[in-house]
Amino acid sequence: MAGQKLVITEYGAIEGRDCTTAIQKVIDQASAGDMVVVPKGIFLTGSLFLKNNMELHLEKGAVLMALQEEEAFPMIWTRVAGVEMEWPAAVINALGKDHVKITGEGCIDGHGEHWWRKYWGEDRMGGMRKEYDSQGLRWAVDYDCTRVRNVLIMNGTDIVIQGITSKRSGFWNIHLCYCRNVHVDGVHICENRGPSTDGIDIDSSSEVVVENCDISCSDDNICMKAGRDADGLRVNRVCENVTVRNCVLREGSGITLGSETSGGIRNIFVEHISFYGTGCGFRIKSASTRGGILEHIRVSHLQMINVHTCFPFQLQWNPSYSLCEIPKEYDGVIPERWKILTQAVPEKEGIPFVHDVKISHVTADFTEDYPKEGKSVAFDLQGYPESPITDVYLEDIRIRARKFGNMEHVTGLICKNMEITVES
Question: The whole model's pTM is what?
Answer without folding.
Answer: 0.97
